[in-house]
Amino acid sequence: MTTIVQGRRSQSYEPLLLENEREAVADLLQYLENRTTTNFFTGSPLSALTTLSFSDNVDLQRSAALAFAEITEKEVRPVGRDTLDPILFLLSSHDTEVQRAASAALGNLAVNSMLANLNLKLADNKLLIVKLGGLEPLIRQMLSPNVEVQCNAVGCVTNLATHDDNKTKIAKSGALVPLTRLARSKDMRVQRNATGALLNMTHSDENRQQLVNAGAIPVLVSLLNSPDTDVQYYCTTALSNIAVDGSNRKKLAQSEPRLVTSLVMLMDSSSLKVQCQAALALRNLASDEKYQLEIVKADGLQSLLRLLQSSYLPLILSSAACVRNVSIHPQNESPIIESGFLQPLINLLSFKDNEEVQCHAISTLRNLAASSEKNKTAIVKAGAVQSIKELVLEVPINVQSEMTACVAVLALTDELKGQLLEMGICEVLIPLTNSPSSEVQGNSAAALGNLSSKDDYSSFNDVWDKPDGGMHKYLYRFLTSPDATFQHIAVWTIVQLLESGDPQLISNIRSSNLLIPNIRNLASSRTSSPTSSIGTPHSHHSQHSYQDTDAGDGQGEIQLLARRILDFVDGDIDGLVPSSVPGSHMQPGSSVGSSTGRDHEELRRSVREAFAPGSHR
Fold it and tell me: Which keywords accompany this UniProt record (predicted)?
């Protein structure tokens, strides 16, 4: 830098320099000699640089631009308009060397610092650069035929685009079209910077749409095959963000037939971050049925299985999320099981380091069980229920909700009910009917209700009074709940227990001072308890279990079921005559008694989606 300033100045330049320029040159030389102790962003050093920047002498401008570039490369700090104005002036120069150095300096001032406190202040640099009109000359430089100028200008825009407040301004500035064009540059540095800038513009709905309109999709997809891992990463991540929007997924489906194949190949990349983002991109695409099927068709399952068994958390999380979405399609259930996913998914149930991984794993198992009795049997045989029993009381509430929902789905199969009961699953379901989460309560009660629809009821005698008050206290809590859904589950379950003909159960119910008075209350009048449009119980003997219904009179059926119980309890018959109870319906959209609106919506969603055969989530 010093030699650039000194150069031929003493011989050929000095006679042409203005007095203030000559003084500025002399001052700058002195400051550069003592650069380690000089603050160039204030006072006389900045004044000297400013004088040279605004000079009509292009050599002095070059010296100033190169000085700014070198200084900002070694020291980045928050600056004001007095620093940015001369750099922005240099940015508009017609001289290629000045442009290159000025854009490098500007990019340095917009860079992210590794220091958190400083980084917050440096955000002001990014905002101020845009506020002072920095985008327009940067766009002009992106159109320059000089690769070095292009590289620095695009790099600066990439850094500016890391600030959320700048993204929309960049999108509206006309920068997206040249950025998209430069993403195809033959110079790898320009290509990296351009794809990085495009990635930074994909974090909001509006900007993603503008990016799509600028023609970015085919460019990003084609660059998935780049030999450079950074470019692969930027493009994969950008496409993953673009695929968040349903309308964009449709465009991708119509115009990019090789997209899934390319992403599946990238899951075998040598770069862990590329593998991770490829799986996440496929996860977002798999929000649509077409892509759920296409991922399996493209042999994506084996790569996902390998990532799922990785020791690297981001890979586990991304692949688990992707498999969960892929498992939503009924046609994918058997291929996933046949590819060997069951044991790895069951192993992840105990992945206590990350709740999200546990949720994805159990939700996938639940989806795999949704449509096929064979698959349900395979899941139980692989040890899923035993793992659930061991873990469910200790895991976070969100995981408890998914686990109890999975048990409820598995309990729909008559051939499995006995196995589940022999495993002692009721011992953990009963305590969870008193969970602080209404969703966990409902899922657990529905699982118990589905298990009660069997021939051998001895297991329910074993848990009548224990643990935590057993079936007895659970049924009492639900009968006295202000939530009509819980009341409904309770009376339906009691009907199932009475229809069993088991003498011990019948005696326990008849002699209960907790249950019978509350059943009489429900039978005597139509209460104003709120109802909900969630999965509702049907008589086992009419070949039904908990299923979703859309409309009807839920309160009327609660009263009907309560009266049937009393007909038996007050009569001398040995059991209820099996009959087809009229379809149980509850008014959709109503609020739930003491539950919060959010809890109620969670419960409705959970039971509706979990307990209807063939449901997926």
Answer: Lipoprotein, Membrane, Myristate, Repeat, Vacuole
Rounded CA gap, 85 and 40, in Å?
Answer: 14
Please report the DSSP string for 63-103 in residue order.
HHHHHHHHHHHH------HHHHHHHHHHHT-S-HHHHHHHH
Delimit the domains of the chain by residue range. Answer: 19-173
Quick count: other Cβ atoms within 10 Å of Cβ 170?
25
Q: What is the DSSP letter of 299?
A: T
What is 19-173's CATH number?
Answer: 1.25.10.10
Residue 151: φ, ψ to 5°: -60, -50
- Distance between CA atoms of residues 374 and 412, nearest Å: 12
Give the span between the Cα atoms of 198 and 187, in whole angstroms.
17
Structure tokens, 213: 């309109």
For tokens 């460019």, the residue is 219
* Cβ neighbours of residue 545 closer than 8 Å, sequence gap 6 or more: 411, 412, 449, 450, 453, 537, 538, 611
Peptide bond preceding 78: is omega within 30 degrees of 0, i.e. cis? no
User: Smallest Cα–Cα separation from 582: which of 562, 557, 559?
Assistant: 557
Give the whole-angstrom CA distance, residue 384 versus residue 376.
Answer: 10
Q: Tokens 């688990």 label which residue?
A: 320
Helix (H) or strand (E) holding 548: strand 547-548
**pLDDT of 113-160, one tens digit each?**
433 344 455 568 899 999 999 999 999 999 999 999 999 999 999 999
What's the pTM?
0.82
The DSSP bridge partners found for residue 547 are 536
Joined together, the tokens standing for residue 262 give 């390319």
Q: How confident is the model at residue 617 (pLDDT cuts 50, 70, 90)?
A: low
What pLDDT score does 76 carry? 81
Tell me how long the chain is: 617
Residue 563 structure tokens: 């009266």
